[in-house]
Design brief:
about 25% strand, four-stranded antiparallel beta sheet, Chloramphenicol Acetyltransferase, about 400 residues, alpha+beta, seven-stranded mixed beta sheet
Amino acid sequence: MSLAIKVPPVGESITEVVLSRWIKQDGDYVEMDEIIAELESDKATFELTAEKAGTLKTIAKEGDTLEIGATVCSIEEGGAAPAEKKAEPAKVETPQPASKPAAETKSDSYAAGAPSPAAAKILAEKGLDTTTGTGVGGRITKEDALKAQPATKTAAPASAPSKTSAPVPSGARGERREKMSSLRKTVAKRLVAVKNETAMLTTFNEVDMQPIMDIRAKYKDKFKEKHGVGLGFMSFFTKAVCEALKEFPAVNARIEGEEIVYNDFADISIAVSAPKGLVVPIIRNADLMSLAQIEQAVVDLATKARENKLAIDEMTGGTFTITNGGVFGSMMSTPIINAPQSAILGMHNIVERPVAINGQVEIRPMMYVALSYDHRIIDGRESVGFLVRVKQLLEDPARLLLGV
């Protein structure tokens, strides 16, 4: 008796997923609740588990797009232990008499110099008939075909060097194609939609990071000892943003149809670079958190993102986004709004620059900050005022604690 394993519901807004990888292969014995495959939606990666023990029979292939409820595979009853694969006996080549040379059979896929179907297709596209095989018995594998290059023709010696033609450097000119993941396709569509559907502008300012750096240098060890988490820059920026959002509520709002929806809470989205692309998990009610709580939330979400373990609800919603291009060395950029939000704050790298302080030139650790916003809902006065308020709070961190 077999049991069909179907694509489970993974979120209200998700109607299809992509089978990104089979962890178990066709014919493998699997235990109940064992992970057998990975499914990828436009928001996250999910694990598909076996609903009973038995032998796996795959139906869908890697890369297939499946609707919710579609059958991915089946599990057949039988066997109490994993089926062991018998090792194939080594092929022994029997020497042929010199008078009777061995005949080459094109239908034998393991004959020396015979390509696999995939290799044959690649060779045909390159205009090659054959190449050196590294597979079993000299078989030409797909990898051999990908590496194969047309033989370089030796030019006939010329009587005199040409004055009009220069030698063309030789070298590898390969290319490869990969199917876009669902996450990458969704990110691409959303970014284009934001550029086309919003009146996006960006305003810039700079922040003297010396006060925050002094606090971190003075208290980071005690902070780590007491709270079990490091004191980074993200908690200061998050707290500053939350305070500024209270004074400029339009920056924390969004447009729905012909209405503006204002939020009296701050769910801050933090852009994180994950193995499969950019994800934006959310710190809920960040305006009610301490610096330690924010730092712990950032660590937890970043760890889940790197391990592809973020749940849908951890990336759904959000009222304002912070992205830090400075970790990659970015000095200045114009971040794109994370729709349906109306604004995003971009952090950048910290660079020592000469600045005027009380009439004197000093070298200070400076950071450019950028606020991209939807001009349909946020006016210039509000965008500039918001960014100036964030700058004031960061340059005088005591205000973050005193709320002034």
